[in-house]
Amino acid sequence: MPSIRQIWTAPEGGAPMEASERVRAVAGGGLQGDRYCHGRGYYSPYDVCQVTLVDSGALETVRERYGIDLSDGRHRRNLVVDCDVVDLLDARFSVGGAVFEGTRRRPPCAHVEAVAGEDDLAAALSEERGGICADVTEGGEVAVGDELRVVERLDDPDSLAAAIRERREG
Fold it and tell me: Which DSSP symbol is given to 17?
């Protein structure tokens, strides 16, 4: 089962990312203490992702191919997970006590490169490794080590019926 490897937040746009062992996800807002949850992100209010996720394998690829170590959070993503995050697009998934909905890809930009102080970081992360955005649909605690479980596929018409059956049986 995929799980959370790292949690990162920043209090405002451009501020260094801070690692946490646990954080509260706020329904309709993001992660408590993070810049976008409080409207202080670099792209606020125009291009907001409530929560960003990136695959730990993608970060390892960046380290191996480009010699850029992002283990200190300079990737600027909130949740580092050990699965292909593209699989979470158009899906509702639970992590700890919270529920998220994968909404869109989050390709890297020049701002990430500038804040990280790494030339070619945007190219290294590229769209395939840049991560995704997710909305918080149900708030709750999220911790490093929590399992990530797909609850419902939003692009699959049969998934809603299956989710209803599962709730009735469970």
Answer: P
Q: What is the pLDDT of residues 10-48, one digit of tens each?
A: 998 888 999 999 999 999 999 999 988 877 655 555 667
> Are 6 and 55 in contact, with CB atoms under 8 Å apart?
no
- Which tokens hold the place of 90? 């158009």
Model confidence, pTM: 0.84
CATH of 4-169, one of 2.40.33.20, 1.10.10.1320, 1.10.3210.10, 3.40.50.720: 2.40.33.20
Beta bridge partners of 95: 98, 148
Q: In Å, how far from its chain's centre is CA 113?
A: 18
Query: What does the block give as tokens for 52?
Result: 């960003």
- What is the torsional sign of CA 18, 3, 63, 113? negative
* All residues at 6 or more sequence positions from 77 whose CB lies less than 8 Å from its CB, including other chains: 8, 52, 53, 54, 106, 131
